[in-house]
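Lab notebook, page 48
Experiment: co-folding of the full assembly
Goal: obtain a model of how the components sit together before planning crosslinking
Operator: M.T.
Materials (sequences as entered):
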Amino acid sequence: MINQINVNEAMLEGAKEVFETMVFMDITEAADQNQGIEGWALLGSISFKGTFEGCLAFCCNVDCAKAISANMLGIESSDVSEEETCDAMGEVANMLMGSVKARFQEQFGNVEVSIPSVVNGRNLRSNLGEGAVRISTIVNVHDEHVANLSLLYRERRQHK
Amino acid sequence: MGKSLMIVDDSATMRKIIMRTVRMSGLEFDRTEEAGNGAEALEKLNTNPVELVLCDINMPEMNGTELVKKVRELPACENTKIIMVSTESSQEIVDGVIANGANGFITKPFTPEKFHEKLAPFMN
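Observation: model returned without errors.
Model output:
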């Protein structure tokens, strides 16, 4: 049985670890959990399958994504290309998935993960369909930006 | 062969991040190469072997696990050390790639200190 509070905590702890070591930015849980991502956004996601199937996503607006990419690459935000921004968002999702997976190895068992994908647009939201559990947290990135961490999962269906 | 390094990752941005982290670790290489997948890496290693390979696992075309197996069949790369760099952290996967011939494993997220710890023992 998966405890949703523990998954949320693991997702936050994983995000803090990833952002402190690779992005050199702080992540804190936002006081206002009802706020959305303003403006044009990017959503990096990675799907997984095993006993459970689902996807983990990290979504933020373009300014935040550029700041993340710039910090990861050690360059100025103005010098970050669109391709680098997309790549960095995918890699953030990939590392977040790795952190969550490591913390939930026992509950999730062995899971296969996909190669990350990144989409852009407004009001982006992952959807897994019927029977899925959604765990979602709004976070502050370096006290300057707002981002959304989400994990959707359900017991794996046996496809015929 | 000299101090030479190849970074294999399907993300060009991650290759840059790894290169930056290698520099921050204080380790220096005379020659550095990059490859976007296992197949490209194998082709380059066949003609221009390197001392050290930092390799992702999940990649299209030829993944890191397959690359390790293929590199171990190349006589030109008999002294090449391969360190896997991946978000995969299960003991089963780590043991699997080591059994196939990898020399070490670095889990993402990583730090320059971690790179130094894992890579320095293989630097002549």
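Interpretation: The two ends of chain A are 25 Å apart (CA to CA).
Next step: discuss with group before ordering constructs.
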